[in-house]
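Worked Example 4.2. Consider the chain below.
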Amino acid sequence: MKMRSLLTAVGLLLAVCAQAQQPAKGIIAEGGTTNDRASARVLYWNQKTNAAAGQIAINYGCPIWKKDYEDKAKFDAMTDGKIWRLGNNFWTTLVTDLPLTISGKHVPPGPYYLGLSRSADGSQWSLAFINPAGARKAHLDAFDINKAKIEFLAPMSTEKAGEPAEKLTITLTHPKDDIKNITLKIAWGNLALSAPIKVTLTD
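Applying the procedure from the previous section yields the following structure tokens:
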């Protein structure tokens, strides 16, 4: 009887030890180290009051272009008819203090998460705007962008790419004599997109 009890106890101990060696299932944590992020920003300054008059900023991770993307069939299969992640790591964000019109689409002041949408036939790219509050409530990472609710789209024009951009590059430029008209450009590998932004400024 004592032998049987001893064997049972040993068996239970071995089972507990084996279970302890199994990898834990559930929530894990990733990241915590510095990653490659960039920012494109236009700041408006009121010289009469010597104070800021508003700004626009896009912050994004900088993924490297992969050689595989140069296979048109593979690239089209990945992007046609899909909402595509723009950047890497944390969400690409647009924050504006000022009312904007992007490709004719009204964009009120506030924060937005951004993605890229491509039409099913591959002919049209658009900026996809996502409400950060909704994404936060659902605990969505940018990896899950296909699960996010798209608030609206702003069409982008496809341009002829020059020198391939090794890393994702987003720029905001304007003529010196026309600061209310900004050109947003996205360059990544062979992909080159642009959209006009009209800014509403008050003196």
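The longest strand covers residues 51-61. The chain has three helices and twelve strands. Compare this with Example 4.1 before moving on.
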